Amino acid sequence: MKVISAIKEMHEYVDKLKRRKHTIGFAPTMGALHEGHLSLMAAAKQANEKVIASIFVNPAQFAAGEDFEKYPRDVKKDLKLLKNTKNVDCVFTPDPKEIYPDGYATYVELGNEMPKGLCGATRPGHFKGVTTVVSMLLNIVKPDRLYLGQKDLQQAMIIKKMIYDLKYPVETVICPILREKDGLAMSSRNMYLNPDERNTAPALHKSLQMAESMIELGERDPQVLVREIKRKLKEANVEIDYVEVVDPDTLVKKDRVGSRSAIAAAIYVGKTRLIDNTIINLKE
User: Fold this and answer.
1) In terms of domains, do 126 and 89 share one?
2) Active site (catalytic) residues
Protein backbone atom coordinates (compact mmCIF):
# COMPACT_ATOMS: atom_id res chain seq x y z
CA MET A 1 0.00 0.00 0.00
CA LYS A 2 1.48 3.30 -1.12
CA VAL A 3 1.26 6.39 1.13
CA ILE A 4 1.54 9.80 -0.55
CA SER A 5 1.42 13.26 1.05
CA ALA A 6 2.38 15.57 -1.82
CA ILE A 7 -0.05 16.62 -4.54
CA LYS A 8 2.63 16.43 -7.25
CA GLU A 9 3.46 12.84 -6.35
CA MET A 10 -0.24 11.99 -6.24
CA HIS A 11 -0.71 13.39 -9.74
CA GLU A 12 2.18 11.27 -10.99
CA TYR A 13 0.77 8.12 -9.35
CA VAL A 14 -2.72 8.68 -10.76
CA ASP A 15 -1.41 9.53 -14.24
CA LYS A 16 0.46 6.20 -14.25
CA LEU A 17 -2.75 4.35 -13.35
CA LYS A 18 -4.64 6.20 -16.09
CA ARG A 19 -2.04 5.32 -18.70
CA ARG A 20 -2.51 1.66 -17.76
CA LYS A 21 -6.30 2.07 -18.16
CA HIS A 22 -6.99 1.18 -14.51
CA THR A 23 -10.34 2.20 -13.04
CA ILE A 24 -10.05 4.09 -9.75
CA GLY A 25 -12.41 4.02 -6.78
CA PHE A 26 -11.94 6.79 -4.22
CA ALA A 27 -13.05 7.03 -0.58
CA PRO A 28 -12.28 10.37 1.11
CA THR A 29 -12.12 10.29 4.92
CA MET A 30 -11.04 12.44 7.87
CA GLY A 31 -9.38 9.44 9.52
CA ALA A 32 -10.25 7.89 12.90
CA LEU A 33 -11.31 4.99 10.74
CA HIS A 34 -13.94 2.41 11.67
CA GLU A 35 -15.82 -0.40 9.93
CA GLY A 36 -18.12 2.12 8.24
CA HIS A 37 -15.16 3.66 6.43
CA LEU A 38 -13.73 0.25 5.59
CA SER A 39 -17.03 -0.79 4.02
CA LEU A 40 -16.63 2.05 1.50
CA MET A 41 -13.21 0.77 0.49
CA ALA A 42 -14.46 -2.82 0.29
CA ALA A 43 -17.23 -1.66 -2.05
CA ALA A 44 -14.68 0.26 -4.11
CA LYS A 45 -12.44 -2.80 -4.37
CA GLN A 46 -15.27 -4.88 -5.81
CA ALA A 47 -15.92 -2.48 -8.68
CA ASN A 48 -12.51 -0.94 -9.46
CA GLU A 49 -9.03 -2.13 -10.30
CA LYS A 50 -7.40 0.38 -7.95
CA VAL A 51 -8.66 1.97 -4.72
CA ILE A 52 -7.41 5.24 -3.29
CA ALA A 53 -8.38 6.56 0.14
CA SER A 54 -7.58 9.92 1.65
CA ILE A 55 -7.08 10.91 5.27
CA PHE A 56 -7.41 14.64 5.78
CA VAL A 57 -9.08 16.55 8.61
CA ASN A 58 -10.38 19.47 6.59
CA PRO A 59 -10.13 22.75 8.55
CA ALA A 60 -12.44 24.56 6.11
CA GLN A 61 -15.49 22.57 7.22
CA PHE A 62 -15.13 23.38 10.93
CA ALA A 63 -16.57 26.63 12.27
CA ALA A 64 -15.05 28.57 15.16
CA GLY A 65 -15.77 26.73 18.39
CA GLU A 66 -16.26 23.34 16.72
CA ASP A 67 -14.07 20.32 17.38
CA PHE A 68 -11.32 20.75 14.76
CA GLU A 69 -8.48 20.78 17.28
CA LYS A 70 -9.73 17.78 19.24
CA TYR A 71 -11.07 15.79 16.27
CA PRO A 72 -9.60 12.27 16.70
CA ARG A 73 -6.40 11.75 14.75
CA ASP A 74 -4.24 8.62 14.63
CA VAL A 75 -2.87 8.34 11.12
CA LYS A 76 -0.41 5.59 12.08
CA LYS A 77 -3.25 3.42 13.40
CA ASP A 78 -5.42 4.25 10.37
CA LEU A 79 -2.69 3.28 7.92
CA LYS A 80 -2.13 -0.03 9.68
CA LEU A 81 -5.86 -0.73 9.55
CA LEU A 82 -6.03 0.04 5.84
CA LYS A 83 -2.98 -2.05 5.06
CA ASN A 84 -4.50 -5.04 6.86
CA THR A 85 -7.72 -4.84 4.84
CA LYS A 86 -5.80 -5.25 1.58
CA ASN A 87 -8.54 -3.24 -0.13
CA VAL A 88 -6.58 -0.01 -0.56
CA ASP A 89 -3.75 0.53 -3.02
CA CYS A 90 -2.85 4.09 -2.07
CA VAL A 91 -3.58 6.54 0.75
CA PHE A 92 -3.33 10.30 0.25
CA THR A 93 -2.43 12.05 3.53
CA PRO A 94 -1.73 15.72 2.75
CA ASP A 95 -0.79 18.38 5.26
CA PRO A 96 -3.30 21.26 5.56
CA LYS A 97 -0.69 23.61 4.04
CA GLU A 98 -0.52 21.35 0.99
CA ILE A 99 -4.26 21.77 0.40
CA TYR A 100 -4.64 25.35 1.64
CA PRO A 101 -1.31 27.14 1.06
CA ASP A 102 -0.81 30.72 2.20
CA GLY A 103 -3.03 33.01 0.16
CA TYR A 104 -5.59 30.34 -0.72
CA ALA A 105 -8.82 32.14 -1.71
CA THR A 106 -11.05 29.92 -3.87
CA TYR A 107 -14.15 28.09 -2.58
CA VAL A 108 -16.88 25.95 -4.12
CA GLU A 109 -20.44 26.39 -2.85
CA LEU A 110 -23.87 25.22 -3.95
CA GLY A 111 -26.18 28.13 -4.69
CA ASN A 112 -29.44 26.35 -3.87
CA GLU A 113 -31.12 25.44 -0.58
CA MET A 114 -29.44 22.06 -0.09
CA PRO A 115 -26.61 23.30 2.18
CA LYS A 116 -28.92 25.53 4.27
CA GLY A 117 -31.23 23.05 5.98
CA LEU A 118 -30.64 20.08 8.29
CA CYS A 119 -27.01 20.24 9.49
CA GLY A 120 -26.39 23.43 7.49
CA ALA A 121 -28.89 25.38 9.59
CA THR A 122 -26.69 25.17 12.68
CA ARG A 123 -23.33 24.78 10.89
CA PRO A 124 -23.21 27.70 8.43
CA GLY A 125 -20.30 27.41 6.03
CA HIS A 126 -19.76 23.73 6.81
CA PHE A 127 -20.78 22.40 3.42
CA LYS A 128 -18.86 25.15 1.63
CA GLY A 129 -15.76 23.64 3.23
CA VAL A 130 -16.85 20.13 2.27
CA THR A 131 -17.54 20.88 -1.39
CA THR A 132 -14.33 22.87 -1.69
CA VAL A 133 -12.09 20.09 -0.40
CA VAL A 134 -13.91 17.33 -2.28
CA SER A 135 -13.63 19.28 -5.54
CA MET A 136 -9.89 19.55 -4.98
CA LEU A 137 -9.54 15.87 -4.07
CA LEU A 138 -11.44 14.87 -7.21
CA ASN A 139 -9.04 16.97 -9.29
CA ILE A 140 -6.07 15.35 -7.58
CA VAL A 141 -7.23 11.72 -7.56
CA LYS A 142 -9.31 11.73 -10.81
CA PRO A 143 -11.42 8.73 -9.76
CA ASP A 144 -13.98 6.91 -11.86
CA ARG A 145 -16.19 6.32 -8.80
CA LEU A 146 -16.52 8.20 -5.52
CA TYR A 147 -17.68 6.26 -2.44
CA LEU A 148 -19.66 8.04 0.28
CA GLY A 149 -21.69 6.86 3.27
CA GLN A 150 -25.44 7.27 3.71
CA LYS A 151 -24.97 8.29 7.36
CA ASP A 152 -23.88 11.69 6.08
CA LEU A 153 -26.88 11.87 3.75
CA GLN A 154 -26.95 15.64 3.32
CA GLN A 155 -23.22 15.75 2.63
CA ALA A 156 -23.46 12.89 0.14
CA MET A 157 -26.32 14.48 -1.80
CA ILE A 158 -24.63 17.89 -1.85
CA ILE A 159 -21.44 16.33 -3.22
CA LYS A 160 -23.45 14.36 -5.79
CA LYS A 161 -25.14 17.59 -6.93
CA MET A 162 -21.78 19.39 -7.14
CA ILE A 163 -20.35 16.57 -9.26
CA TYR A 164 -23.35 16.78 -11.61
CA ASP A 165 -23.29 20.56 -11.88
CA LEU A 166 -19.53 20.86 -12.41
CA LYS A 167 -19.51 18.00 -14.95
CA TYR A 168 -16.99 15.80 -13.15
CA PRO A 169 -16.74 12.45 -14.98
CA VAL A 170 -17.30 10.62 -11.70
CA GLU A 171 -19.98 8.16 -10.59
CA THR A 172 -21.19 8.75 -7.02
CA VAL A 173 -21.80 5.56 -5.03
CA ILE A 174 -23.62 5.94 -1.71
CA CYS A 175 -23.09 2.99 0.62
CA PRO A 176 -25.42 1.84 3.44
CA ILE A 177 -25.03 2.91 7.07
CA LEU A 178 -23.05 0.49 9.20
CA ARG A 179 -24.24 0.16 12.79
CA GLU A 180 -23.04 -1.13 16.12
CA LYS A 181 -24.93 -4.11 17.56
CA ASP A 182 -27.27 -1.76 19.46
CA GLY A 183 -28.09 0.23 16.33
CA LEU A 184 -25.86 3.27 16.85
CA ALA A 185 -24.55 4.46 13.49
CA MET A 186 -20.78 4.04 13.31
CA SER A 187 -19.02 7.41 13.55
CA SER A 188 -15.57 8.70 14.47
CA ARG A 189 -17.25 11.00 17.00
CA ASN A 190 -18.65 8.02 18.93
CA MET A 191 -15.31 7.80 20.71
CA TYR A 192 -16.11 11.11 22.43
CA LEU A 193 -18.95 9.42 24.35
CA ASN A 194 -18.41 8.39 27.97
CA PRO A 195 -20.00 5.07 29.07
CA ASP A 196 -23.30 6.64 30.19
CA GLU A 197 -23.56 8.70 26.99
CA ARG A 198 -22.74 5.63 24.91
CA ASN A 199 -25.67 3.83 26.54
CA THR A 200 -27.95 6.76 25.70
CA ALA A 201 -26.81 7.30 22.10
CA PRO A 202 -28.79 4.42 20.48
CA ALA A 203 -31.99 6.32 21.32
CA LEU A 204 -31.50 8.17 18.03
CA HIS A 205 -31.73 5.03 15.92
CA LYS A 206 -34.54 3.63 18.05
CA SER A 207 -36.59 6.76 17.47
CA LEU A 208 -36.15 6.38 13.72
CA GLN A 209 -37.13 2.72 13.94
CA MET A 210 -40.29 3.77 15.76
CA ALA A 211 -41.11 6.15 12.92
CA GLU A 212 -40.53 3.38 10.38
CA SER A 213 -43.03 1.22 12.27
CA MET A 214 -45.55 4.06 12.27
CA ILE A 215 -45.17 4.39 8.50
CA GLU A 216 -45.64 0.64 8.05
CA LEU A 217 -48.92 1.00 9.96
CA GLY A 218 -50.06 3.73 7.59
CA GLU A 219 -48.88 7.06 9.05
CA ARG A 220 -48.00 9.52 6.30
CA ASP A 221 -48.00 12.89 8.09
CA PRO A 222 -44.43 14.20 8.62
CA GLN A 223 -45.60 16.44 11.47
CA VAL A 224 -46.91 13.44 13.40
CA LEU A 225 -43.71 11.48 12.78
CA VAL A 226 -41.48 14.37 13.82
CA ARG A 227 -43.51 14.99 16.96
CA GLU A 228 -43.30 11.34 18.04
CA ILE A 229 -39.58 11.10 17.29
CA LYS A 230 -38.92 14.21 19.36
CA ARG A 231 -41.06 12.85 22.19
CA LYS A 232 -39.01 9.65 22.27
CA LEU A 233 -35.74 11.57 22.16
CA LYS A 234 -36.84 13.85 25.00
CA GLU A 235 -37.56 10.74 27.07
CA ALA A 236 -33.89 9.81 26.56
CA ASN A 237 -32.81 13.25 27.85
CA VAL A 238 -30.83 14.22 24.78
CA GLU A 239 -30.70 17.66 23.17
CA ILE A 240 -32.43 17.73 19.79
CA ASP A 241 -30.82 19.70 16.98
CA TYR A 242 -33.36 18.80 14.29
CA VAL A 243 -35.74 16.11 13.09
CA GLU A 244 -37.07 16.46 9.53
CA VAL A 245 -38.75 14.48 6.78
CA VAL A 246 -37.21 15.36 3.42
CA ASP A 247 -36.82 14.17 -0.13
CA PRO A 248 -33.60 12.08 0.03
CA ASP A 249 -32.35 13.42 -3.30
CA THR A 250 -33.16 17.13 -3.08
CA LEU A 251 -33.37 17.47 0.74
CA VAL A 252 -36.56 19.52 0.35
CA LYS A 253 -39.02 19.12 3.24
CA LYS A 254 -41.95 16.87 2.45
CA ASP A 255 -45.54 17.55 3.41
CA ARG A 256 -46.38 13.87 3.06
CA VAL A 257 -44.42 10.62 3.25
CA GLY A 258 -44.57 9.40 -0.33
CA SER A 259 -42.91 6.69 -2.36
CA ARG A 260 -39.42 7.87 -1.39
CA SER A 261 -38.67 9.90 1.71
CA ALA A 262 -35.91 10.31 4.28
CA ILE A 263 -36.16 11.00 7.98
CA ALA A 264 -33.01 12.76 9.15
CA ALA A 265 -32.12 13.77 12.69
CA ALA A 266 -29.28 15.24 14.74
CA ILE A 267 -28.92 15.25 18.52
CA TYR A 268 -26.39 16.12 21.18
CA VAL A 269 -25.51 13.44 23.68
CA GLY A 270 -23.56 15.44 26.23
CA LYS A 271 -21.34 17.62 24.03
CA THR A 272 -21.19 15.12 21.18
CA ARG A 273 -23.26 15.77 18.09
CA LEU A 274 -24.62 12.63 16.41
CA ILE A 275 -26.55 12.31 13.15
CA ASP A 276 -28.59 9.50 11.64
CA ASN A 277 -31.23 8.92 8.99
CA THR A 278 -33.45 6.34 7.40
CA ILE A 279 -34.72 6.23 3.83
CA ILE A 280 -38.28 5.09 3.29
CA ASN A 281 -39.28 3.44 0.02
CA LEU A 282 -43.01 2.81 -0.31
CA LYS A 283 -44.98 1.07 -3.03
CA GLU A 284 -47.91 3.38 -3.63
Assistant:
1) yes
2) 37
